Amino acid sequence: MKTVRRFFCFFTVGLVLLHLTACDRGGQAQAADANPSNSAAATQPAPQPPVTNRAPDVYPIYTYEVVKVRPHDRGAFTQGLVFLDGVLYESTGLNAESSLRKVDLDTGKVLKNVDVPAQFFAEGLAVLNGKMFQLTWQNNKCFVYNLTNFEKMGEFTYPGEGWGLATDGSRLIMSDGTDQIRFLDPATFEEKGRISVRAHGQPVNRLNELEYINGEIYANVWTTDYVVRIDPATGRVVGVIDFTGLLAPEDRDQTTDVLNGIAYDAAGDRLFITGKHWPKLFEVRLKLKP
Fold first, then answer.
1. Is 243 buried (19+), middle (13-18) or exposed (0-12) by CB count in 10 A?
2. How far is the C-alpha of 232 from the C-alpha of 169, rounded, in Å?
3. Distance between CA atoms of residues 71 and 281, nearest Å
């Protein structure tokens, strides 16, 4: 079991500027229950860092408008979410509860399900070349399934923890709860490169669920309602989305956990967002924050 060490993010918005700093890598999140990405602990702002002479990064801050609300299984501890050919593919976590699912977009009904063995805690999910790749948190394994019939085709091993997974169409893109993002060969799971994600020269830790959208990596920052947009070539944060208030208080219960789950419909230019044990899936449209 891990213990939580509070994660501090400093957000100051002035016009369209965001100053985002994160704790150092040694202070990354450690969950009190089974998963580093499942605590709903509130994030408190840290004191403002000292002023330096270096010019700050400048990038847009986005908020959202809800286009449509669809049902989502409240029992799903969402770890990875993918939209493909009109349906959702979802990886859910927790020991003895992890699964791989095919889900009807409009009804939330589970169309196909494979339970992950109880000793594994499933994490991020990516679909590439007719295969589904599902990470596990601390088991150092990635399971590979046939997209059509959900049959297991093999597995890979990797060092460190597994958190989020996405693809740019040729490589797999993996987060491990730190500021690091790895690029992996889908045929061998060999690391082909990595970036350190930075905002104002500081590491952005707790990068979790990932999605690759129009040449950028979208990464959920665990325990916050923020998603950062990342330049995959440099690791530089190029935008931040504030999803505060997306799930209304009346939709929450004692099981409701943090925002986690990003899926994108490229053909329809639709962005879907949900969370762990959330009863709703939101189709949202981004807009600049005033």
1. buried
2. 13
3. 6
Q: Give residues with Cβ within 8 angstroms of 23, minimum separation 6.
A: 7, 8, 205
Q: Report the Cα–Cα distance between both ends of the chain, in Å, rounded.
A: 42
Alpha-carbon distance 236 to 196, whole Å?
8
Rounded CA separation 200/229 (Å): 14
Return the number of other C-beta atoms located less than 10 Å from residue 152's C-beta.
13
CB 102 within 8 A of CB 89: yes
User: What CA–CA distance (Å, rounded) separates 232 from 201?
Assistant: 16
Burial group, residue 76, by CB count within 10 angstroms (0-12, 13-18, 19+): buried
Residue-level pLDDT, tens digit, the chain, 290 residues: 232 333 333 333 332 333 344 333 333 333 333 444 444 333 434 333 333 344 567 889 999 999 999 999 999 999 999 999 999 999 999 999 999 999 999 999 999 999 999 999 999 999 999 999 999 999 999 999 999 999 999 999 999 999 999 999 999 999 999 999 999 999 999 999 999 999 999 999 999 999 999 999 999 999 999 999 999 999 999 999 999 999 999 999 999 999 999 999 999 999 999 999 999 999 999 999 98
The full set of domains in the chain, from first to last, is 9-288 (2.40.128.630)
Question: How many CB atoms within 10 Å of residue 276?
Answer: 25
Tell me which DSSP letter residue 236 carries. Answer: B
Residue type, position 270, single letter: R
Find the angle CA(10)-CA(262)-CA(28) to the nearest 5 degrees. Answer: 40
